[in-house]
């Protein structure tokens, strides 16, 4: 991919708007772009490649493994997001990232990012702000487990999914169904059976409609 094309893609990410032209060129020239198919692994635990990733198209699932080796899903990201940033904090994150659907990812070596961070205070602040936001996102999820019941967690997850991934069509919010009920259960700390039960009840009540391909969010505000 030519440098000019890479620059165009990088300019779509807000976090790079504080870079100078020379810094943008440095990032573009050292970046690589790769397509992934659904369920392809993108980043492995402990990010041994020391890479920062930019999600250009599609969406991904971010998770980690418990001490017992069980898979835990933390959150999903759509295009325009950055992941792998925890390598900047301690270089020892056990997160993994998998393509939730076909996607395109830009990879940046951490040495280049750290060099620019050391010379550009605004970029340094932006990167560590991103890390802080991700940590708060996980803290928010933990608070939900403590203070909210499973039904509320699932409904609020659907609301967030609609806001971040949905598209308005015919007075409906349409979300591509790229997650299984088991995965929604992991993201909301509930079981697959509970997710199925709540989705079916919401469908009967006219709050949502869904099939194997999409979820139509009709009215979740009055649940």
Task: List its salient traits.
223 residues; alpha+beta; Jelly Rolls; Arc Repressor Mutant, subunit A; four-stranded antiparallel sheet; 41% helix; DNA-binding; DNA-binding transcription factor activity; Crp/Fnr family transcriptional regulator; cNMP-bd_dom_sf
3D structure, described in words:
This protein is an alpha+beta fold and 223 residues long. It folds into 2 domains: 3-135, Sandwich (Jelly Rolls), CATH 2.60.120.10; 148-217, Arc Repressor Mutant, subunit A (Orthogonal Bundle), CATH 1.10.10.10. The protein is built from 7 helices and 12 strands. The strands form 3 sheets. The chain has a 4-stranded antiparallel β-sheet. It is globular, with a radius of gyration of 19 Å.
